[in-house]
Specification:
binds uridine-5'-diphosphate, 26% helix, hydrolase, seven-stranded mixed β-sheet, binds calcium ion, alpha/beta, 448 residues, calcium
Length: 448
């Protein structure tokens, strides 16, 4: 496994976010703590906000990020131990935030697909342990702020974030982009349909109408649970949901000589390759197709729209040298296929040190082509390591500082390329701009 966290996410990297907190009154500074409990890891974001005057919305001044692996779902039968991993990260917040501000600093944890996949009781047990831990901490724990975020919301937030960051949300001639997020356990596709036929053809479940900053949107967003990269590995191996730890799962996408074990969601799986003659791209692709075929929606409009792809799309593209890790780049769907072909055909000779690379690339190819229905020549913007490291904050009147401020759009970090945004929906806009927001005051939500 590659380390997905570059030093730029490290603690106290002043260069990334120069602090502007010199001669300001301390009461103009406030903080927030946000946990993104993903299927492969738990991440903390500690935010510092600053408000220069009551006439101005607060802006993001600093972010500290840290993460641990594995994710909470790995502690399916040891909820206390799971909560301990969160405690370690929370201690960091105590070291960072001045004690005078602890009781007014909200702490929120939003879990994604790892917990969605667990039996409800087990997921709840984990969340309860975390809730307890938060309540014992000196921080503010708003109601309903330790919970599983649903996949629709995950998709909407990622879309809001990317379109905010690419400048589309506050552009007069809005030309929004779609997003493709490939997590460990689920995957999302979200875009703003322009064709009436797309809205008509889609099931109502996947159309999310909402209002944000005086504009109405009807997004298409579909989250597929179990179609994240790691969950897909299990599905391809035929091991998804399998509890038999003694069984050996085999695939033509793996090196023939391989025999190994892999732990996911608290279960240990034995896996290995097949005979050399049946190993390679062709047979691997056929195997992968079985788990994808006819399982996904194919809105025709996506073929003519721009999409930004991140998370594992990005990770695997960087791992195989398809794009530069800092710059990102444009990748054609067929580039993924060519790379998959190359890696899979070399399985019998080389040991890449990453036995799943052929399977992962083949899955990404099949997901894009046969799953979503993109063309071979469809271009994808593959940028940024971590959009789930991006957080959209939705302010409510919880922060008195927000009151009375006209609903001007945003207060991003001016001139910064930083990947976090502060979205301020003023208290006078009714809901925070997005309907059906969980009743969690001062809501700060992770994007996936
Ligand atoms: O702060 C982070 C940490 C990880 N990732 C990426 O998210 C993917 C893993 O997905 P996750 O664990 O969030 O699983 P999910 O619960 O979303 O299915 C990998 O590509 C990581 O590089 C990310 O975008 N931001
Ligand atoms: Ca995620």
């Amino acid at each position: 496994e590659v380390d997905v966290f570059s030093p730029q996410y490290g603690i106290g990297n002043e260069e990334l976010l120069p602090s502007r907190s010199t001669s300001l009154n301390i009461s103009n500074i406030f903080y927030g703590i946000m946990f993104d409990a993903g299927s492969t890891g738990t991440r903390i974001h500690i935010y510092t906000f600053m408000q220069k005057s009551s006439a101005e919305p607060p802006h993001l001044d600093n972010e500290i990020f840290e993460s641990v692996k594995p994710g909470l779902s790995a502690y399916v039968d040891q909820p206390e131990q799971g909560a301990e991993t969160v405690r370690g990260l929370l201690d960091m917040a105590k070291q960072t935030i001045p004690s005078t501000h602890w009781s007014s600093t909200p702490v929120v944890l939003k879990a994604t697909a790892g917990l969605r996949l667990l039996p409800e009781q087990k997921a709840q047990a984990l969340l309860s342990e975390v809730q307890e831990l938060f309540e014992e901490s000196p921080f503010l724990v708003p109601d309903e702020c330790v919970s599983i975020m649903n996949g629709t919301y995950e998709g909407i937030l990622a879309w809001v974030t990317i379109n905010f960051l690419t400048g589309q949300l506050y552009d007069q001639n809005q030309r929004t982009v779609g997003i493709l997020d490939l997590g460990g356990a689920s995957t999302q596709i979200t875009f703003l349909p322009q064709a009436e036929s797309t809205l008509k053809a889609a099931s109502e479940k996947y159309i999310s109408p909402f209002e944000m900053f005086n504009r109405s949107y009807k997004l298409y967003t579909h989250s597929y649970l179990g179609f994240g990269l790691k969950a897909a590995r299990l599905a391809i191996l035929g091991a998804l949901g399998g509890k038999d730890e003694s069984r050996m799962y085999r695939s033509s996408c793996l090196p023939p000589s391989l025999k190994a074990e892999w732990k996911f969601g608290g279960i240990n799986y034995k896996y290995g390759g097949m005979a050399e003659e049946v190993t390679g791209f062709q047979s691997c692709y056929a195997e992968v197709l079985k788990v994808i075929r006819e399982k996904l929606d194919q809105p025709a409009e996506i073929r003519s729209r721009t999409f930004y792809a991140f998370s594992y799309y990005y990770d695997r593209a960087v791992d195989t040298g398809m794009i530069d890790g800092d710059q990102g780049g444009i990748i054609l769907v067929k580039d993924f296929e060519m790379k998959a072909n190359k890696v899979c055909e070399a399985l019998t000779e080389t040991n890449t040190g990453s036995p799943f690379l052929c399977m992962d690339l083949t899955y990404i190819t099949a997901l894009l082509k046969e799953g979503f229905g993109f063309y071979d020549h469809t271009e994808l913007q593959v940028r940024w390591r971590a959009y789930s490291g991006t957080t959209v904050w939705l302010f409510r009147s919880h922060y008195k500082t927000g009151e009375g401020i006209p609903p001007t759009p945003f207060s991003p970090l001016a001139g910064s390329t930083h990947k976090s945004v502060l979205v301020r929906g003023g208290p006078h806009q009714g809901a925070e701009g997005i309907r059906e927001l969980p009743r969690c005051q001062a809501t700060l939500l992770s994007v996936g």
